[in-house]
């Protein structure tokens, strides 16, 4: 059953200059043309598929600026092209803008959320005839251009922020590789089971310098264990290269005493031993006193003067892929305390640990600030998209 079209309703103050027309009179969509991978020839023209650009070709069949909308697969996904392009048959493309601004149309399609008209369970498909008669309210061309300018300005800021985040993330990865293979003084290296490390560093096992424990889960069917709980209780999904300052769930003192759960102090390093997807092998640091479930390992240095929790945090982050290879299990490779104890650790003197940790922590702080700004820009974009496309805020009221 297809989705029932919903009108893009506009407040009364826009009625005098916005026009309500069927979608098909605002933009005419056409199915793209098939182009198999074997038919691709190197060229400058992007090929627009259901999920965006899927390659490049030496021939274009649609003029830019243009738009594709995912038809099969990522149904409803909107992609904008400045230059001429080849719309693939897994996408629809705008054959005729009917005099409307192409950039405005891009954002207008996103606001309409055409994915709600997709049908089919295994391979969602978008039928343009389903929403051809959908009533849409459209501003005059000058306001279209102003709206497009405002939204594209915010989007450019978003894209710039994403590039900064990517560059900072790549810098951190490069520094971790340098620190953990060359150290701080570009000293000679020695070959070990974990690859090259500085000659002055000591190679040992994690269990030689740290104690590994796990937690537990209070019985879920006992209300006294959970009702009005105040003790933070960490699950593996919350362990994600972060500082844990709160938890989704909390247990009671009874829950703590009636289970294998135990309290760990602030500063404790946690590792996810189980978890679907990318969770297993991730680490986090506690900023609070908290308990954990049995799938979380706590790793506590036996002597902080020899190795710090923060150094172990970055060592494990650097060795994430190697950690994941440790797991056991047919369907899901789980880790355990014994495997973590046996994991190799390259250890510099405390002074070098401090420099390494402080440098990487400064980059983490910068990344958190960048991600927070990115989130704020995304919120701003979504709010502006809604406000401008429904005339709750008029483009001439904004000063960008």
Compile the SSE list and pairings.
Blueprint: E1 19-22, H1 23-26, E2 28-31, E3 45-49, E4 52-57, E5 66-70, E6 78-81, E7 86-87, E8 91-96, H2 102-112, E9 118-119, E10 125-126, E11 135-138, H3 141-182, E12 189-192, E13 195-198, E14 202-205, H4 206-209, E15 210-214, E16 231-234, E17 243-244, E18 249-251, H5 253-257, E19 269-272, E20 283-286, E21 291-292, E22 296-301, H6 309-318, H7 320-324, H8 337-341, E23 344-347, H9 350-389
Parallel strand pairs: 3-7, 16-21, 17-20
Antiparallel strand pairs: 1-11, 2-8, 3-4, 5-6, 5-8, 9-10, 12-13, 14-23, 15-22, 16-18, 19-20, 19-22
Helix pairs in contact: 2-3, 3-9
Short description:
This protein is α+β, with helices and mostly antiparallel strands. It has nine helices and 23 strands. Among the domains are: 127 residues, DNA methylase specificity domains (Adenine-n6-DNA-methyltransferase TaqI, Chain A, domain 2); 146 residues, Adenine-n6-DNA-methyltransferase TaqI, Chain A, domain 2, CATH 3.90.220.
Textual characterization of the structure:
- The protein is an alpha+beta fold and 400 residues long.
- Among the domains are: 12-138, DNA methylase specificity domains (Adenine-n6-DNA-methyltransferase TaqI, Chain A, domain 2), CATH 3.90.220.20; 202-347, Adenine-n6-DNA-methyltransferase TaqI, Chain A, domain 2 (Alpha-Beta Complex).
- It has helices spanning 23-26, 102-112, 141-182, 206-209, 253-257, 309-318, 320-324, 337-341, 350-389, and strands at residues 19-22, 28-31, 45-49, 52-57, 66-70, 78-81, 86-87, 91-96, 118-119, 125-126, 135-138, 189-192, 195-198, 202-205, 210-214, 231-234, 243-244, 249-251, 269-272, 283-286, 291-292, 296-301, 344-347.
């Amino acid at each position: 059953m297809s989705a029932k079209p919903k009108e893009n309703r506009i407040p009364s103050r826009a009625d005098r200059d916005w026009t309500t027309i069927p979608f098909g009179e605002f933009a005419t969509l056409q199915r793209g043309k098939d182009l198999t991978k074997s038919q691709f020839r190197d060229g400058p023209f992007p090929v627009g598929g259901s999920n965006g650009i899927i390659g490049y070709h030496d021939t274009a069949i649609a003029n830019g600026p243009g738009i594709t909308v995912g038809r099969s697969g990522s149904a409803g996904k909107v992609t904008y092209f400045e230059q001429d392009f080849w719309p693939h048959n897994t996408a629809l493309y705008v054959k005729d803008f009917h005099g409307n601004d192409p950039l405005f149309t891009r954002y207008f399609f996103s606001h309409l959320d055409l994915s709600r008209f997709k049908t089919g369970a295994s391979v969602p498909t978008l039928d343009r005839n389903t929403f051809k008669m959908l009533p849409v309210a459209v501003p005059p061309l000058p306001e279209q251009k102003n709206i497009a300018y405002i939204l594209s300005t915010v989007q450019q800021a978003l894209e710039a922020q994403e590039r900064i985040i990517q560059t900072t993330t790549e810098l951190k990865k490069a520094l971790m590789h340098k620190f953990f293979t060359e150290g701080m003084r570009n000293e000679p290296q020695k070959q070990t089971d974990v690859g090259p490390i500085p000659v002055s560093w000591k190679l040992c096992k994690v269990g030689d310098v740290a104690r590994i424990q796990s937690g537990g889960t209070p019985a879920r069917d006992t209300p006294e264990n959970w009702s009005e709980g105040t003790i933070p209780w960490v699950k593996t999904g919350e362990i994600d290269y972060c500082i844990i300052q709160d938890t989704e769930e909390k247990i009671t003192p009874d829950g703590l005493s009636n289970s294998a759960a135990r309290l760990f102090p602030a500063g404790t390093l946690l590792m996810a031993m189980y978890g679907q997807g990318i969770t297993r092998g991730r680490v986090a640091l506690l900023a609070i006193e908290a308990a954990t479930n049995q799938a979380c390992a706590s790793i506590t240095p036996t002597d902080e003067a020899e190795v710090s929790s923060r150094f172990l945090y970055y060592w494990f982050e650097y060795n994430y892929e190697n950690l994941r290879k440790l797991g056991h299990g047919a369907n899901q490779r789980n880790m355990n305390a014994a495997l973590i104890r046996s994991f190799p650790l390259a250890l510099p003197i405390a002074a070098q640990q401090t420099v390494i940790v402080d440098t990487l922590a400064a980059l983490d702080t910068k990344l958190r600030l960048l991600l927070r700004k990115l989130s704020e820009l995304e919120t701003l974009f979504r709010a502006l998209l809604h406000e401008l496309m429904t005339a709750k805020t008029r483009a001439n009221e904004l000063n960008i």
